[in-house]
């Protein structure tokens, strides 16, 4: 039954991804009615009907255009929905417990928010991050090891804090410290260290590819948040494998 439930979790992820795809631009622009306002086309402001709001399917049915003004719908909507669906499906397949899934799904929803918000706007929104850190600590008390989680968070915050002080904010932003606190509380010690290493390896490889393809220069600002999210997710699912891989390289 695990594959069946994983598919159900993925379908649930589609709807949470739809919420994320709406939340992210509204938080950035400061639009009111985030939770209770009607969904509408960002171009013509026409209120969307129920059949326009079916995650992924509506985008495909409308061929990526608003049914009213015919303007293109941002590709970020289906990408966010699909990414959340795949993440939720994989998460349940890994955990195989609905109670634990509920706790960790909220963690991963925050990670996906960080990934897409930082990728799109190159900033971190404290209105989400600060409550998320509090939630992650509560979760560590309920389902984890709070001391290990706090130590992991302290290591990550110290790691980023030192870089921030040495560079006076040129290497990383202050928002990365809050991401570090969240990932430390989620992964705990010592997996936080594994995630940091994985994040920087991924970031270095992507940066080299961007430079080689001439899509970036050495002065191009590349957001760190998405790499921290990828490193955190990879470590959560494949942490033991990554540790063995690192040790073999030594």
Overall pLDDT: 86
Helix content: over 70%
The domain tally reads: 2
- Strand fraction equals under 5%
Q: What gap, in angstroms, lies between the N and C termini?
A: 41 Å
Helix/strand class: mainly alpha
Order of H and E elements: HHHHHHHHH
Helix run count: 9
User: Care to count the β-strands?
Assistant: 0
Poorly predicted runs of 5 or more residues = none
Biggest sheet: strands, sense, closure? none
**Taking Cα atoms only, what radius of gyration do you get, to the nearest Å?**
19 Å
Global outline: globular
Characterization of this structure:
The chain is mainly alpha-helical. The protein folds into two domains: 1-96, no CATH class; 97-250, no CATH class. It is 71% helix and 0% strand. The protein contains nine helices and no strands. The chain has helices spanning 2-29, 57-61, 76-95, 98-121, 126-143, 146-167, 175-187, 191-212, 225-249. Helix 4 crosses helix 9 and helix 6 (146-167) packs antiparallel against helix 7. The mean pLDDT is 86.
Summarize the structure.
This protein is an all-alpha fold and 250 residues long. It is built from 9 helices and no strands. It is globular, with a radius of gyration of 19 Å.
Present the secondary structure layout.
Blueprint: H1 2-29, H2 57-61, H3 76-95, H4 98-121, H5 126-143, H6 146-167, H7 175-187, H8 191-212, H9 225-249
Give descriptors for this structure:
2 domains, 9 helices, 71% helix, mainly alpha, globular, 250 residues
